[in-house]
Amino acid sequence: MAKLSSINKNERRKKLVKQYAAKYEKLKAIANDTSLDETERLMARLKMAELPRNANPTRVRNRCATTGRPRGYYRKFGINRIELRDLGNKGLIPGLTKSSW
Question: What family is it from (predicted)?
Answer without folding.
Answer: Belongs to the universal ribosomal protein uS14 family.
